[in-house]
Structures
1.
Amino acid sequence: MDGLSLSVGGRTLCQRPVFGTHRTAQTSQCALPMWEPRQPIPGRRRDRFRPPHCPYEECPAHLAVSHYRAIHKGSYRRKRDPWRPIPRFRCETCRRTFSREAFATSYFLKRPELLLPVANLLVSGCANRQIARHLGCAPSTVTRLSVRLGQHAHRFLELSIARLAGIGEPVVLDHFETFVRSQQERLGIATAVGQTSWFVYALQGAGYLRLRGRSRRKRALKRQPTSPPPGSVVDSTQRILECVLRRSPGGLDLISDDHPAYRVVVRRLGSSIRHQVHANPDRSPGGDATRVRARDRALFAVDLLHKLLRHSQAHHRRETIAFGRKRASALGRAALFAVWRNMIKLVSERRPTRLTPAMRIELTSRPWTWVDVCARRLFERRIKDLSI
């Protein structure tokens, strides 16, 4: 069996077998140098901080790359931390003022110390009220922080993909099925995962049709669930494949099950995708065990991701009362989980080798922490401009 050698800094970290192929797999190569975490914005000394650009999206200097000019405009102190003055600046382009906290992930928060504990507990299987009881805050505070963390995680994923020169491994695609609003609306989350690195490349949401059998109590609800637009699964599959194809100049090796939406999208996108289909076999005692093993071996990366996702987030469990209220919130938490899976969680917690999926594709040189992930605020316009 061939193996995949992983090296960081010129030394080999481990050699992992590659399943389902008879050739050595190629990992992604980073387009930029190793992505090292930066010092958090709140921890910067005020005499060493220089604003890299204007934080206001309407300002022409918001997309500035270099030679940005802003003058010092005094400072202020907060009641909870009066010993650390926060510097203020004035943009020379739009003449508006801003502080150093405008570049921190915890901008405009009354209790910024809750941001990192909430992120850690959201991927640890805790519901909002459990987190609120543990941290001594209101459940609505946890809800607002989870929305902010989800938006930050979406931009962090886009930035991670933008730093890659190409994807040199097969990508496994499958939809993760869950519910919102107490099992009234079905939600599918398309997940594209590297087969050998287990790196989550992209996520896309898709609304599923409602179940036909509904109880009398659910039929009597005043607010009936809205039906998803037709073809939403096909649209989500096309969006996620187009995102992955932009980083696959030599074509994409796609592995999936026999969902009809995948075949439709592959025909639309042409011959740049080499599609390998593994149909879901019969798993009864009389089924073909060889086909079952072949399917599980090929789709192991995405199956493992879905198991961890259902285990680590309370609103995705089979029997739960912690349903998400909105699809955007469920997608934001899925993006937060993907960032945790890529950058923080080790590939194996039982083996002594400290490797993350991001280290396998040579994106980072060491495991990150929540402090590193939330070190600075990510601006949507700047991330989109970099991703194009």
2.
Amino acid sequence: MTDKPMPQSRLRGPSQHEVAARAGVSRGAVYAALSGRECTIKLTPEKHERILRVAREMNYRRNITGLSLVQRRSFLVAFLVRNSLRHVLPSLLVSMQDVTEANGCSLVVYYHGDSVEDEARHLEMAVERQVDGLLLYPALERDGTTNLAKLRSLRGQGLPVMQIDHRISAELPSVAPDYAGHIQLAISELRALGHRRIALFTSTVVQQEPTPGWYGVGALYYRAYLEVCASLGVAPLIAWRDDVPPAETLAATRPGAPFSYADVANARRVLALPERPTAVLCSGDDDAIPLIFGLQELGVAVPRDLSVVGAHQIGLRTAFSGLATRIGGTAWDPHELGRRAMELLFAEIANPGTHPPATARLPFHWVPGDSVGPVPGAGAS
């Protein structure tokens, strides 16, 4: 077997030396005009514009490989995302790419797989790529297993790491929606509509702490709900969701329902609370929609008999009472989440280790919908 030289890329453009020769300036002047970095070489506006014009005419492209060798950077930023963010992923990627490109870098996305093992594999791939920074939706198993030790080690070695949407440790920087604010805002809006018996529909896992310092979204909802109830002097009403419905529960689900776990059992739990609620808070639209189907099976009209509040406003629609209905509730801006997270990450890339872990919380806003209405009987004479 004979060794053949690797073919040179046909995309290779002119070098800075060639641009300099065409523009009649030094190579250093070309570097100063094209690098966008602080430089000891000062150019007149006329010379700067001439260099840029010649570079455009020659279709000059930055040699990222050469820059990487000189600056010891890859100009790559990795984003490790999980299936949980699939509904908002397009908006996240658009804003992240905008910030990444503005900083002269490219975005590498690792999406396939939700487990801690998958994340560990993606972390190794990102490190092999020698990325300049790492943004991730951290994985967490039910037994508390995480990659925190690995992430802590990478950050200790100088790799900027940023958690997005939720965090597994306060040691690492994070950017996330203000999930506690979701509960506070939703209860405020519901009380303005006359509701006083407001229940929380959530999973039993929010009572657990699978790993010390875990900041799970459901747990934040649960704690915020208890705090608001205490501040109002009312007893909490909590309906615990059946996360794995048994076969008989699935069999009772309305035929044609788009979600297999849209079961009547969860709706019965809501209606069987010590005080029947007039409104129910859900952790997301994908919890609210199956609950609405379950309530409909039991003859409960939404929102005439019971208001159902979602979160995230992921845009899912479902049909009940013959209408295409949008879930009412709170929403946060995924475009702003991606932009803010990437800006903080690049701030740390530019100034590593100069500040403590940054934390940013994005506010929710209220979005009216057909699933939320006044307290039953409010308009009765």
3.
Amino acid sequence: MMQPSTPIYQFSSTSPYSGLILKREDLSRVGSHKFRYFGPQMKKLATAGVKNIVISTTGNAGITASFLGKQLGIEVYCLMSDKGDLKKAAEIQRHGGKIFLSTRPVRFAKYLAKKLNCPLLKTSKDGAESYQTLGEEFMLQIPNLDIIVNFATSGTSSVGIMQAYQKAGKTLPELHIVQAGKSCSIAREFLKDEEVEWEEGVGLADTPRREEVLKWIMKSGGAAHYVAKEKYEKACKELKGLDLETSWEGAACFWVAKEEILKKNPGQTVGIVFSGRAWDENTKSDFKTVESVKEVDEMIRFL
């Protein structure tokens, strides 16, 4: 029998949160579920002799790549939005990653990878397969699961989870996708007939696997949700009071599970993916920024 990579946390039957079960991906060595995909990919690159990689990240992928790169002897260059979570930027730096902030991280990541003649690390079209292990662990640890709540930036982990259930011939749990900030294309499509105050923030404006995720939502009878910053920050404080700190993405999922799902579905079992750790407060302010091709070229001279 397989051994789960991360534990679950279940609230007691007398708790107001009874029925909610947390899948603690934030307790993995890298603090998120990104190890499930990037672990095998980074090992392949190291075996092939790759010494440098570039990645555009909102945080967790960069932390994971930097952690693994340090172990495997690969230099990791991370481009991140200047509006991103600087606590995550500090964690990338702590693990030895080279972090650069920009208003256009995706564009300059592509340019830097081309100039360094090295791989641009990103989730491939078949990347969902790596996240099937998360679905398999849900089936093993919570066999009576009715609903899964997961945050979607690229949507890859959600696709992998549902593929695992289908592959095993199991009844699909309802898939409830949570989005916030700039990551909102799935929620926009699902909630197009509702009045929603869309906010700015970090993330991907166009979720790469939007159509796939929407199909899984419809097939499973699930839904998509959008959470305002005020709500997920409130959920962060609530979780902290329970000694359950996680990322704002995980807190947004918790808020949806308790406020929008559990109250409408009493008695059902709801699994929440806690996909990122609550990192220590950032104390650094020396992150380098790049805002032009010229600045990238200048940066390369000193690498």
4.
Amino acid sequence: MPRFAILAKAAVIAVLAVSPLISSAQEMSTESKEEVISRMTDVIERHAFVPGVDFSLWGEFLEKRRASIDQADSVRSFSISVNRALREFGFSHIRLITPEATKRRNSGGGLLAQSRFQREERPNESLEWVDDETALLKIRSFGSSYSQKKINDLMREVDEKAQSLLLDLRYNGGGSVGNMNHLLSHLMPDRTAYGTFVTRRVYDRWQIAHPEEEVELSKVAEWSKSKIRTRLRKHEPYSGQIAVLINRGSASAAEIGAEALRETMGVPVVGSRSRGAVLASKFARLPDGWSLQYPVSDYVTIKGRRLEGAPVVPDVTINMRRSEESDPVVDEAVRQLLLAREKTAESDSSSDGDDDGDGRLAA
């Protein structure tokens, strides 16, 4: 490569590397900070919802951090101070997002694996073969980088060739519930109910209908007719064995999907505990390119489990990290499915041999 081309490429990489630093170091005036906080307060107190949470406390949380907010003179220091105040609520999916991060979120770009010298795109969805019969489907996000068309294509290959499927949701931080439901609709029967989003409307209606009862989120969810269900599809769902892989990086929609498969289909979950961050949220625009993520509903599984603050606990816990030679979580998931096949074969064999003495199978 010509020397000038190398220098030009190096210059581009350098600009990409320092541009976030420049943005985060950008100065903020007192007026800009107050405009952002004022709009945030309006959104939080009027639109945010988590059952049982008093959002009018936001003013108190803000005052506790007032000194550091007033002293903040850059985008970075301001966002850190405000987000510390937001963390006083004690739940997920509420955060102030910088203008730079807001641009990245709105761009819908894929995930990047970055080294010191390069930025290499990784596909959001990938399919590998552990052996001739076992497919490993890795999904890194259910966000804007999720491709329903690509999943359709990959699942067609899985349907045709795989006896077993390992669904790898490790480090999947969630995203769109619609995308997660699209995946589940490849794996579960049509119209399978697997959970309930408890919105302000559902919560208020339950209280009106049950004025004398103490509120329990599981009761509210059971009472609600608005269940989340898999969609109708033109083909049958995958009929082979399934195991789900999770870790601390699995959150939100990924946790919903993992627990849905376990509760409705008995699918084993292997790995380490998930994050326990499962609230439905929206994004509000704020002045000067800032944005606010805020919760609008809670989630309860079909069996009455609230996942916010209660991580998905694997059936088999594996905390060992993968190496270039092996992945202990994948190895254990394969072993679990093999044991399940052997158990099913033994059960079938036992049933075939259970005779009542006159040539007829016993009931």
